[in-house]
Amino acid sequence: MHYPETYLDLLRRYGEPIESLVQPLSGFATVYPPVGFLAWPFGDVGNGDFDGYYWPIGREARQPVVAQMSHDYWALNPTASSVEALIGFGSYSHLREQLGFSAVPTPRNPLECFGSIEAWASYVSARLEIDPHSPHYLVARADVAVAQNEPDRAVSLYQQAVEWLPEYTAAHYGLAVLSRRQRRPAEVVRWCLEAVRSPLAFRGASFWAETCLPLEYVNRDDYRRKCLHWLGQAKPADAGEFERDPLFRERHRLTFATGVTTNDDFLIYQDAVAEYLALGQPLVAIRLAMLYGELISAEATPFRERYGFTLDGHRDWLVKLFEKAGLTERRAFLQTS
Known about the structure:
The protein is α+β, with helices and mostly antiparallel strands. The protein has helices at 7-14, 18-21, 83-89, 92-98, 110-114, 117-130, 135-147, 151-164, 169-181, 185-196, 223-233, 246-249, 265-278, 282-297, 301-306, 311-325, 328-335, and strands at 37-46, 49-54, 65-70, 75-80.
C-alpha cells in the first residue's frame, strides 16, 4: 500500500476533506480534530475514533506522525512516528482483551490495567524499542523517569518528543514540572508558556488506556491553571528572554476561567496572536489560534456570539495565518472544506 507523504497527496488521493471521511465531531470540525490531522477511512479503532496522519505545524512537507483520536476527551495522541512503526506495534484489540476491555472500553487509569509502575514501564519501553521516535511513548517513558527520580533522563525524553512534535502540550508540561523542581525559573517560564499556548488536543488525555498518561507521575489535571499560577509567581528578571513574551507580559490579567459570562482572555489571545506574527513567530501564533478555537468552542452559544466567534470566521483566520507563515498545504486543506 502506498502511504502519501504530504497533505496535498492525501487530498488528491481521497479527493475530499476530513469532514466527509469522518463524521464531524461535536459540530466543530474546524477545531477538533486539530487542523493537521487526516483520519484514515480504514483506521477505525472503535468508539467513533480513528487512527490517521498528523503533520506538525510547519512540517507539512515531511513525513507525518500517526495519531489516534480520543474524541470523548477532545484529544489526539501521537502514538507512532510512522505507519511502519504502528504496524510493528500490532493490534490494539489483543491488548484490550488482555486488559479486560469490552468491545468499547470504559475510561480507566493504565496503572489499574497494568497493575504496577514496573509493568507499565516495561510495556512503554517495549513500544519504544519498536518505535524510538514515538512522541506519545517518549512522554510516557519520561513520566516514569520522573516517578523514578531520573530527571536528566526525563528531560531528554521530553525534549525528543518535542523535536518530533513541537506543539506537544503534554511534553511541554512535563518539562515545566521538572524545571520547577530543579529551580530553573527561566525554563519554568519557557515551558509553561509553551504548554498554555499549544492545543488542548495534545495534553495527553485519552479514552483508551494504552494511550493514557497516568496521573500518578505527572499530574496534568488542570495543567493550564497550574502553569498560570507558576507564571504569576515568576518575576520579570526570572523570565530571561521570555520577559517580553505577549502572554507572559499579560499573565496577571489572564484568568483561564470557564463557564463565565465574559472572559477577556480571548481578547488577550487575539492581541497575542498578532504580536507573535509581528515578532516573527508565526508558528507560535498558529498554535495559539488553534487553542483559541478549542477553548471558545467549549463555551455556550451566547458566549461565542458575544465574542463574535463562528466556525467560518475561525477558518478564515487560520487560513490567513497559514498564508503568512507560508504553510501552503495547511491552507489548501482548509480551503477545500
